[in-house]
Design brief:
The chain is an alpha+beta fold. Helices cover 47% and strands 16% of the residues. It folds into 2 domains: 172 residues, no CATH class; 124 residues, no CATH class. A 4-stranded antiparallel beta sheet has the order 1-2-3-4. It has a 4-stranded antiparallel beta sheet with strand order 5-6-9-10. The protein is globular and about 70 Å long.
Length: 366
């Protein structure tokens, strides 16, 4: 989730547990700092852009690392704040929860987090909430602002903080329930429209849990289905696109491809852009403005060969008309997302040449 959300969540947790001992203002600031701490992994240098992408939210977001860090941080706080010295277990609980709730809400997003590292090294990414969701953040923000404005602990402030934590947690739980309902509806629509896809992933669209993007993944293509909870029966908006896997057939042995394939869970597509092979994570962003796109190969006289990797940053994230489209879908009204409806697939001759060059390159490499 975004940095503001992580700060106010940690601040609310700390205020609930420590506000009566050291005052709400100090508790909120302390919790906000602890809630931000796991994201300091952005300061860790990585070898290349792909490593930076796939290893962010790594070991610093593991609940097992948080458990090991808790005694060190908690004992330091006990020495720093006199009002906490008779409340060791409460302080330990506050530190662990400030750290672990950061990882937990990150795991609710599609990017995910390696919350169980090192015992389960893969990132957990539920995808039931967008990386920024004002409905989740607002109750926590109100409670934390209130706490920062108070010097003394009161029963009213306690009730406000508790209500904010209950509402925000309930919202996350509701998002998971809705995600399963949407996924079940998408399966039904796919069945009605022909052969069902191999994999289905339901993701919340930006800033809400009313409109969902469902990716139906096939070997050579993928469908984007957009569903609103306010849609009428039988109403579905589906766009189909090629994946162009022929472009990466001779790059599958490269380190960059293996990492991106693992991290994206296979939800990727390839493009040929100015002679470069670009791999995009289909889960993050709306077609064609994917948030994470990487150059991992290039065409040469000998064929397609690994290159880079290099992150491609020339994509417009929000296409013209997208906000109007999203507004209509939030109201349950039918709408066409022009950015996808107007997309042209790669010409057949380009696909043929790409496949030919790739096979020549692979043969030459053997």
């Amino acid at each position: 989730m975004d940095s503001l959300t992580q700060f106010v969540l940690g601040a609310a947790v700390s205020t609930a547990l420590l506000g009566s001992k050291i005052g709400p203002r100090k508790a909120a600031l302390l919790g906000g700092a602890l809630g931000t701490l796991p994201d300091l992994d952005v300061l860790i240098p990585f070898d290349d852009p792909v490593d930076s992408f796939v290893y962010h939210r790594g070991w610093t977001h593991s609940v097992f690392v948080h458990a090991l860090a808790t005694p060190v941080l908690a004992e330091g706080l006990l020495r720093l704040f006199k009002g906490l010295r008779d409340h060791r277990w409460r302080v330990w609980a506050a530190v662990f929860l400030c750290l672990s709730t950061h990882a937990a809400i990150d795991a609710m997003t599609v990017y995910g987090t390696r919350i169980f590292w090192p015992f389960y090294p893969d990132p957990v990414g539920v995808g039931s909430v967008f990386i920024m969701d004002p409905i989740y953040t607002l109750p926590l923000l109100v409670a934390v602002v209130w706490a920062l404005c108070r010097k003394t602990w009161t029963s009213r402030l306690r009730n406000v903080v508790a209500a904010a934590l209950v509402l925000s947690t309930g919202y996350l739980a509701l998002s998971v329930v809705i995600q399963q309902v949407v996924k079940g509806r998408a399966h039904h629509v796919f069945l009605e429209n022909g052969v069902p896809p191999d994999k289905v992933y339901a993701l919340a669209t930006p800033l809400n849990i009313l409109v969902w993007k469902v990716i139906g993944l096939r070997q050579n293509s993928y469908d984007n289905m957009y569903l609103s909870l306010l849609d009428g029966l039988g109403q579905a908006e589906i766009y189909s696109h090629p994946r162009h896997l022929e472009l990466v057939s001779c790059l599958e042995g490269s380190e960059a491809f293996r990492k991106l394939d693992w991290f994206s869970r296979g939800f990727y597509r390839a493009e040929l852009i100015d002679g470069d092979v670009v791999l995009s994570d289909l889960r993050m962003g709306l077609t064609p403005g994917y948030a994470f796109r990487f150059v991992i190969g290039e065409t040469r006289d000998t064929g397609i060969e690994p290159s880079g990797p290099e992150r491609l940053l020339d994509t417009v994230r929000v296409e013209e008309g997208d906000w109007d489209w999203l507004g209509a879908r939030l109201r349950g009204r039918p709408a066409v997302r022009r950015a996808e409806a107007d997309m042209s697939p790669m010409p057949q001759e380009s696909r043929y040449v790409a496949a030919l060059e790739c096979s020549r390159g692979a043969a030459g490499a053997g």
